[in-house]
Amino acid sequence: MGIPAFRINKKILYRIIDNRNDIIVGKCKSKDLNYPYFAIFAALLKLICDMRTIQMVDTKTQYHKIKQEVDKAVIDVLESSAFINGKPVQDFAANLSAYMGVKHTIPCANGTDALQIAMMALDLQPEDEVITPSFTYIATTEVIALLKLTPVFVEVDARTFCMSPEALEKAITPKTKAIVPVHLYGQAAPMEEIMKIAAKHNLYIIEDTAQAIGCDYTFSNGIKKKAGTIGTIGTTSFYPSKNLGAYGDGGAIFTNDDELAVKLKMIANHGQSKQYHHDVVGCNSRLDTIQAAILDIKLKHLDAYCDARRKVADYYDRAFAGNEKIKTPYRTGYAKHVFHQYTLILENVDRNGLKEFLASHQIPAMIYYPIPGHKQKMFASFGSSQNNMANTDWLTERVISLPIHTEMDEEQLAFISSKVVEYINQ
Ligand SMILES: Cc1ncc(COP(=O)(O)O)c(C=O)c1O
Fold first, then answer.
1. Is residue 193 included in any domain, yes or no?
2. Would 55 be classed as within a structural domain?
């Protein structure tokens, strides 16, 4: 009995294999692929299909690992019909306070609201100056202008991507009222130095912890605190891609100050002190019960999620070590990086070319952030585009973030890092 022959469009097969896994199979001479060849190709195709699609974040695979618990929690909320301010909201707030080691957690609708409510609670007046890095997501700086305050952009340290204490001190004027350090990419800003400067000038600190929940900060005296619980107020986001991500929007505000906690809670709820008594102007910013129930489950995994991200970062660090065109993320001695992003600084590399090359191999990459705050049109009236922001501008032109999440495997990491090196060394 002869070997069965299969007519296969080899061109298509070759292209799939080349694009998906970079395996070149070009030795087949016959027009028709007979059985042994087909078996090899089938095995290869299986291997290729088995490599999961590479994504910047993979919330679906993560969800499937906790699906039973999450589905039950969601159904419980549906059955209770307590969609707003149900028990899971208070439970989650209490559990998050315990995890963060902070007295008060005020859940709210998202991380942008958290920043806005924090600034409202501090009674900042129009034109008061709020110092913030230019190199951050727009939400940090946008709320300052929204509240008719004046954003004062300062430089970041080019190694840590976070606010430079020297630049901060230079930017302080008699109008300065608050500082908003951002723990960017999962790396904590140098809070010990920032706290000293704030104390010297009697300034509030609002820590934007949207990208760094779970990050441990160690002071020079050995005291450890969570990023977000060090300043006057801390804020965070539960946007789905965040280290502690909801399945929709969500946010929270942290403080150890009892009076501020009452005010923050009131502002997040229409300035209401008791039902239909509205003492201050507030807003409507609530964390849905369903999201709180999901977050409460995910909170138990947060440390493991941060560890998984660190492992990915370790892999990339090793893969790029010694490559003079690639600067891998700096890890400070004072903070345990939680790698919300894994961001490289490229020297003498066509960054867009690399991004396109990676995309041609189905590898996503992102530029966080291509336009810094001081150059955004929305702030034109503050004249900040004239600011000298050498580090910020330098970084803006050189950074690129690679996929990093809790579900990455070595096969994906090997593929991504080999493609980055291949392009850069060409
Ligand atoms: C640094 C930073 N601040 C604030 C926010 C705003 O959070 P949200 O999208 O939940 O409003 C984000 C979200 O990406 C962020 O990265």
1. yes
2. no
Nearest-angstrom CA–CA distance, 121 and 237: 18
Mean of per-residue pLDDT scores for the chain:
91
Close Cβ partners of 426 (under 8 Å, ≥ 6 residues apart): none
Q: Residue 178: in which H helix or E strand, if any?
A: strand 176-179
Which single residue is written with the structure tokens 């999201």? 291
Q: pTM here?
A: 0.90
| Domain end position, chosen among 247, 279, 299 | 299
Binding site membership of 136 for ligand 1 (Cβ less than 6 Å): yes
Is any ligand 1 atom within 6 A of the Cβ of residue 251?
yes
Ligand 1 atom having least distance to the Cα of 250: 10
Q: How far is the CA of 211 from the centre of ligand 1 (A)?
A: 7
Is 32 in the same domain as 69? no
Domain CATH number, residue 111: 3.40.640.10
Q: What does R_g of the chain's alpha carbons equal in angstroms?
A: 25
Q: How many domains, the chain?
A: 3
* 189 within 8 A of 159, measured Cβ to Cβ: no
Ligand 1 atom index nearest CA of 340: 16
- What confidence tens digit (pLDDT) does each residue in 307-349 have? 999 999 999 999 999 999 999 999 999 999 999 999 999 999 9
Q: Is the peptide bond before 63 cis (omega within 30 degrees of 0)?
A: no
pLDDT (0 to 100) of residue 312: 98
Res 29 pLDDT > 60: no
Which of 115, 137, 244, 339 is the pocket-test mutation for ligand 1 (most atoms within 8 Å of CB)? 137
Residue 400 domain-assigned (yes or no): yes
**With a 6 A CB cut-off, is 110 part of the ligand 1 pocket?**
yes
Nearest CA to ligand 1 atom 8: 111
379 Cβ closer than 6 Å to some ligand 1 atom: no
pLDDT in tens, 245-291: 999 999 999 999 999 999 999 999 999 999 999 999 999 999 999 99
pLDDT higher for 108 or 33? Answer: 108
348, 281: one domain: no
